[in-house]
């Protein structure tokens, strides 16, 4: 073995070794090969892509498409490092609209496998094929193939035993390929996909043109239950557009396995988008659960850097704060409209009736609290006024449309029906037009109180001056950030001035956070600003306090309610945002239709 203390002289590496090093970054496993080849097919304008596998992709990967094809004179060049038809200048790189652009996938794959590339353009009389063996590319030879391209990759990592031994079982590698192809199929509904494994046709997806066909493909990949519990969304500004499907909070997951995000058609694992979605769901998702979505973000390619990750799975936004706010506000608005509706089955999990609910049985821990003392507390006084306000009263009979004090929304019937009884001091039993409704009165009232408090707070930043400023030792970068964003901190209720290169003086704090470690919250905000350019720590802290207040102020179990009080609660639910869930994400109501009741009692059989 060579002594590491006696290094070799500096020398240029061979092309074969360079390609194998590059393959170590780009080609991790068979799924990486399939991803690169399918992306090339999509960039070539393919409308049908067929993937054939043997032994989980370890023995054979064959990807065929009907795209533009490669001219015979370019076939060998296609297997050369950094040779590409997709970019030609720095400006092209900064405005990349294709999935691939580096020109390193094919040579990297060819350096660690036995690769064959056959292609034919629409103008060519026949196809041509080249092969790679031990880093050498053969002379193009005539071949039989229709218009488009076929790439065969055999014996992956045959010449790199150290990489091959790290491959998992064939079925595991196969499942990675399936998941990757599903992500690709969700990115391009206009393209047909087919998958074959060991000679068996696994699935075939036709091109999806209509909304119904697109949702059908989503159901094939994400499951029928997901497709049955989604909200389709589309929102755009002058420079950003977000569309896709957002799962209702009732369809939550134990893991983040149904979160698909695409930027300009490229699947990404982006912390900014994941964080924006998690923030949008924060008030409606049960503790420890994960939201589900298929989202497509479209923007000017010059405003996003896709050359930030070897496998192009991560991106960098030029204006990350604007993108984060756009995604968050869009999803928050969509979720805010989740409230009782006549055509909804309720907010309990879809399988609640069978006893197979995915929700944890234990109720979340509820913390005790105290309102912060302050000389001027307009907000706190407003909350007390809200908490002490008498419950709206309605008549026992169904109210007239358009009336106030708990009536149904104008022009709409009462989706939750009208109360007929209270069960064990916990649930409200109501008769609806098509069956019965059960409401968890504490969970429902908790949401009503919480949303009411947030509206009272909207636009108000009550501030408490500190008798003695608190000196904070921070990093110079954090001090610079505090100085740069001083007006934004002031709008949030913080009075912050700079004392020196690494010291800040905290002179005032938001009234509601006076007793909740405002200095720690300020430090967290500065850290967020340095890392991502935005922060919602203050808003989250205030909302957490309001949620706790609402939980303690809401009507408690075992409290007897009159029919007018129960009906008032139902009408409030129908007009309250996010009323399908309480502040902790628990469902607030469920509906049993007459058909479901009949099935329970075997009527009509």
Features:
globular, 605 residues, alpha+beta, 9-stranded mixed β-sheet, 22% strand, single chain
Provide structural commentary.
The structure is a single chain. The protein has 605 residues and is of the alpha+beta class. Helices cover 34% and strands 22% of the residues. The protein is built from 19 helices and 23 strands. Strands 1, 2, 3, 4, 5, 6, 7, 8 and 9 form a 9-stranded mixed β-sheet that branches. Strand 4 (127-133) and strand 5 (136-137) form a beta hairpin. The termini are far apart.
Sequence-ordered SSE layout with sheet pairings:
Elements: H1 15-26, H2 30-43, E1 48-54, E2 60-65, H3 75-78, H4 90-94, H5 105-111, E3 114-120, E4 127-133, E5 136-137, E6 141-143, E7 148-154, H6 161-164, H7 170-187, E8 192-197, E9 200-205, H8 211-222, H9 224-228, E10 230-236, E11 240-247, E12 259-263, E13 266-268, H10 271-280, E14 293-299, E15 304-305, E16 316-317, H11 320-336, H12 378-388, E17 418-423, E18 427-432, E19 435-440, H13 441-457, E20 463-473, H14 476-484, H15 486-492, E21 495-500, E22 503-510, H16 518-532, H17 537-553, H18 563-574, E23 589-593, H19 594-600
Parallel strand pairs: 1-8, 12-14
Antiparallel strand pairs: 1-2, 2-7, 3-4, 3-7, 4-5, 4-6, 8-9, 10-11, 11-14, 12-13, 15-16, 17-18, 18-19, 19-23, 20-22, 21-22
Helix pairs in contact: 1-5, 2-7, 10-11, 12-13, 13-17, 13-18, 14-16
């Amino acid at each position: 073995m060579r002594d590491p203390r006696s290094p070799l002289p500096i020398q240029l590496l061979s092309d074969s070794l360079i390609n194998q090093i590059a393959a170590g970054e780009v080609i991790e496993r068979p799924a990486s090969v399939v991803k690169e080849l399918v992306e090339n097919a999509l960039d070539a304008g393919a409308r049908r892509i067929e993937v054939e596998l043997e032994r989980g992709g370890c023995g054979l990967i064959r990807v065929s498409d009907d795209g533009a094809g490669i001219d015979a004179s370019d076939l060998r060049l296609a297997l050369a490092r950094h040779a590409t038809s997709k970019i030609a200048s720095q400006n092209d790189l900064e405005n990349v609209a294709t999935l691939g652009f580096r020109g390193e996938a094919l040579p990297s794959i060819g350096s660690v496998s036995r690769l064959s590339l056959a292609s034919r353009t629409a103008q060519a009389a026949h196809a041509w094929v080249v092969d790679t063996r031990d880093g050498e590319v053969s002379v193009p030879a005539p071949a039989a193939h229709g218009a488009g391209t076929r790439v065969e990759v055999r014996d992956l990592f045959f010449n790199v035993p150290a990489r091959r031994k790290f491959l998992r079982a064939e079925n595991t590698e196969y499942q990675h390929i399936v998941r990757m192809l599903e992500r690709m199929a969700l990115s391009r509904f206009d393209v047909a996909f087919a998958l074959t494994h060991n000679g068996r046709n696994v699935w075939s997806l036709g091109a999806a043109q209509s909304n119904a066909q697109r949702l059908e493909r989503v159901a094939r990949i994400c499951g029928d239950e997901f497709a049955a519990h989604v909200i389709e969304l589309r929102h755009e500004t002058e420079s950003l557009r977000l569309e896709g499907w957002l799962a209702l909070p009732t369809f939550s997951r134990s893991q983040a396995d149904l979160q698909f995000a695409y930027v300009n058609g490229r699947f990404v694992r982006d912390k900014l988008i994941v964080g924006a979605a998690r923030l949008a769901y924060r008030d409606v998702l049960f503790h420890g659960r994960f939201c589900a979505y298929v989202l497509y973000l479209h923007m000017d390619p010059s405003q996003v850097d896709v050359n930030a990750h070897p496998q192009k799975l991560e991106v960098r936004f030029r204006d990350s704060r604007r993108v984060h706010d756009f995604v968050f506000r869009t999803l928050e608005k969509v979720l805010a409209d989740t409230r009782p509706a006549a055509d909804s089955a309720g907010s309990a999990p879809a399988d609640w009736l069978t006893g197979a609910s995915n929700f944890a049985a234990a109720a979340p821990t509820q913390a005790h609290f105290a309102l912060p003392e302050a000389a001027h507390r307009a907000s706190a006084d407003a909350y007390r006024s809200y908490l002490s306000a008498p419950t709206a009263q309605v008549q026992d009979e169904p109210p007239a449309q358009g009336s106030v004090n708990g009536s149904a929304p104008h022009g709409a019937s009462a989706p939750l029906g009208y109360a007929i009884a209270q069960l064990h001091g916990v649930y409200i039993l109501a008769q609806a037009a098509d069956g019965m409704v059960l409401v968890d009165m504490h969970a429902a009232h908790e949401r009503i109180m919480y949303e009411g408090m947030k509206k009272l707070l909207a636009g108000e930043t009550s501030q408490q001056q500190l008798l003695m400023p608190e000196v904070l030792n921070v990093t110079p970068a954090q001090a610079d950030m505090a100085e740069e964003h001083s007006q934004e901190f002031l709008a949030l209720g913080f009075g912050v001035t700079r004392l020196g290169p690494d010291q800040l003086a905290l002179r005032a704090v938001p009234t509601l956070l006076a007793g909740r470690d405002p200095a720690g919250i300020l430090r967290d905000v500065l850290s967020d600003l340095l890392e991502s350019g935005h922060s919602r720590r203050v808003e989250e802290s205030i909302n957490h306090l309001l949620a706790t207040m609402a939980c303690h102020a809401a009507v408690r179990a075992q409290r007897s309610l009159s029919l007018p009080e129960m009906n008032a609660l139902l009408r409030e639910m129908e007009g309250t945002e996010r009323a399908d869930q309480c502040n902790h994400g628990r469902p607030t109501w469920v509906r049993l239709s007459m058909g479901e009741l009949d099935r329970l009692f075997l009527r009509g059989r």
